[in-house]
Amino acid sequence: MPSSAMQILAFALALLGILGATVATLLPNWKVSADVGTNIMTSISQMQGLWMDCAWYSTGVFSCTLKYSVLALPAYLQTARTTMVLSCMVGTLGLCLAALGLKCTRWGGSHRAKSHTAIAAGGCFMVAGVLCLVPASWFTNEVITTFLDSKIPETSKYEPGGAVYVAFISAGFLLAASVIFCLSCPSKREGPLDFGSSHPDKLLRREQQRREQQQQQQQQQQQHQYYSPSRNRPQDIRTGYILQDYV
């Protein structure tokens, strides 16, 4: 089972992964124009993202155009939009569960309950990492395939942009965090810890108090058994004989 320091590290990795996935979803540079062939005189660089297309012009003007039509988009772009949004949502849910499953926190219930919560958080991070990795890989494959196609003019060719690399790194952070949190599986020796608080000192204190109460109850029962007025003491057998029996 990972230590508290490892869980804090995993929590930080998951937080960075979610922030990176959110930034990658909003960035407009999923693919940028490649500097091949004749240079375009009207614009210096063109970028295309999931939600908008942008261009740098030679005059220094930067303009962006939103993609309003969803049905007109290719399948890989529609899939990238959906999966990236779902990745951010599932990752945020996993972050909330991870906050409850950390060992260093007092909330979240017993050790076993916190372990199960940490495992659930690891599952959410794994799903979020896969949802972030799939669109980045598919988008990169489409860009490279189009770049290597000889039928497409060189002025219309693109290469992967910075947002794709941010998505890959974010997916790696989420998957690494999921592995650490999934190792929080409760062992068999942690079973008795469910009956008390999540703090070990309180558990030991309660166990000692319970044993002392049991000992006191046993002593009281013994005293009541031998000294209770309603119970006569066993008489000595020798008192039933007279002196003549011994003569």
Description:
With 247 residues, the chain is an alpha+beta fold. The chain has a domain at 4-27 and 71-184: Butyryl-CoA Dehydrogenase, subunit A, domain 3. Helix content is 57%, strand content 9%. It has six helices and five strands; from the N terminus they run αββββααβααα. The protein has helices at residues 4-26, 75-101, 111-148, 162-182, 200-227, 243-246; strands spanning 31-33, 43-48, 52-57, 62-66, 158-160. Helix 1 runs antiparallel to helix 2.
Task: Detail the topology: elements first, then pairings.
Elements: H1 4-26, E1 31-33, E2 43-48, E3 52-57, E4 62-66, H2 75-101, H3 111-148, E5 158-160, H4 162-182, H5 200-227, H6 243-246
CA(first)-CA(last) distance? 82 Å
Low-confidence stretches: 188-198
Secondary structure class reads alpha+beta
CATH fold group of the domain at 4-27 and 71-184: Butyryl-CoA Dehydrogenase, subunit A, domain 3
Q: What is the name of the CATH architecture of the domain at 4-27 and 71-184? A: Up-down Bundle
Mean pLDDT: 79
- Order of strands side by side in the largest beta sheet? 4-3-2-1-5
Report the C-alpha radius of gyration, rounded. Answer: 35 Å
Number of helices: 6
As a percent range, the share of helical residues equals 55-70%
Query: How many runs of DSSP E, i.e. beta strands?
Result: 5
CATH class of the domain at 4-27 and 71-184: Mainly Alpha
Question: Element order, helices and strands?
Answer: HEEEEHHEHHH
Proportion of beta-strand residues: 5-15%
Biggest sheet character: 5 strands, antiparallel
State the shape: rod-shaped
Membrane topology: Multi-pass membrane protein
Subcellular location: Cell junction, Tight junction; Cell membrane
GO cellular component, one term: bicellular tight junction
Family: Belongs to the claudin family.
